[in-house]
Design goal:
This protein is mainly alpha-helical. It has one domain. Helices cover 68% and strands 0% of the residues. The protein is built from 15 helices and no strands. The radius of gyration is 29 Å and the shape is globular. It starts with 9 loop residues before the first helix and ends in an 11-residue tail after the last helix.
């Protein structure tokens, strides 16, 4: 038997390296990023610092935008605070319309709850201390943990608030607590946000629409959109969070701060914002709709 010595052309080795799979090349890059001991390489301090500065700038910008929105809203509410006679006239017409629509009587519901001092106290504290902190905490949670949803929700809140400001200026409305047959439970319990210093900055005649209800619905919608495809526990929580707008609706009626139609208009504003504004990130939307599987090809 005769053995033949075969000498390979060096160019063949070059061709094999060029045709190597991408996974092999990626693995070599990963190995190169490790130290001699097999541990991941230390991150670049300059890159870490730049990332932190970018995060701080983004946070400062968002904080400024939210504060500006809140400031403009408060200023606009103050501009419409002098239409007293028109506000009471609109309230009488709204009560008549709700009666014609056979909506539940808010005064009767308030009277029923007022049989329990604890229930009335709970409603007033919920109205005064949950609405704004819950919304701010929700936005912080989105910005820190689910940034792809944050801009979408922030824009919905901004559009709703801007539209509500226009309605407040054009349609001043006295709240139920200022109308005959109702009780200002907040003043009685000492938890009214419209007494003391609050009376000087709050517009007492901006009942329409109810941003308490509108913002609560957006919070529930945002949590549900994030957790709809999560584990069983979070899916259950995404349904349970709808208790927040439900309780808020009950609270604004019991405290006589809003009418039923105030809540209805707030939800309509949210629906309009959802129809106009783009949804969350496309990468996330792929998880919202289950793709249709491709047909199998017989072989």
């Amino acid at each position: 038997m005769v053995r033949r010595n075969v000498t390979e052309d060096p160019s063949h080795e070059v061709d094999r390296r060029e045709q190597a799979p991408a996974t092999t090349q990626a693995a070599s890059v990963t190995e190169a990023g490790k130290s001699a001991g097999g541990q991941p390489a230390e991150p670049d301090p300059a890159a870490v610092k730049a990332r932190r500065m970018r995060t701080l700038k983004d946070a400062a910008r968002e904080l400024f935008l939210v504060a500006l929105l809140f400031g403009v809203y408060k200023l606009g509410r103050g501009l419409a605070s002098g239409e007293t006679s028109t506000a009471f006239s609109n309230a009488k017409q709204l009560l008549t319309m709700q009666k014609d629509l056979r909506l539940p009587d808010e005064a009767a519901i308030q009277d029923w709850f007022m049989q329990s001092h604890a229930a009335v106290t709970f409603c007033n504290k919920y109205y005064a201390y949950v609405h704004f902190p819950a919304t701010v905490g929700f936005l912080l949670w989105l910005w820190i943990r689910h940034r792809e949803h944050y801009k979408w929700v922030r824009n919905i809140l901004a559009m709703m608030t801007g539209a509500a400001l226009v309605i407040h200026i054009l349609v001043p409305l006295a709240p139920p607590r200022k109308m005959p047959g109702f009780t200002d439970t907040g003043m009685d319990a000492g938890d009214s946000p419209y007494s003391g210093a609050g009376a000087k900055i709050a517009n007492q005649f901006a009942a329409m629409p109810s941003l308490h209800v509108g913002w609560a619905v957006v919070v529930a919608l945002g949590v549900a959109s994030v957790w709809h495809a999560a584990g069983t526990g979070r899916r259950v929580a995404s349904w349970a969070v709808w208790l927040h707008p439900a309780i808020t609706l009950m609270v604004v009626v019991v405290t006589a701060n809003h009418y039923w139609m105030d809540a209805v208009v707030a939800v309509l504003l949210m629906i309009f914002a959802l129809a106009v504004l783009p949804g969350p990130d496309r990468e996330l939307q792929r998880g919202l709709i289950r793709p249709i599987p491709a047909p199998r090809i017989a072989r």
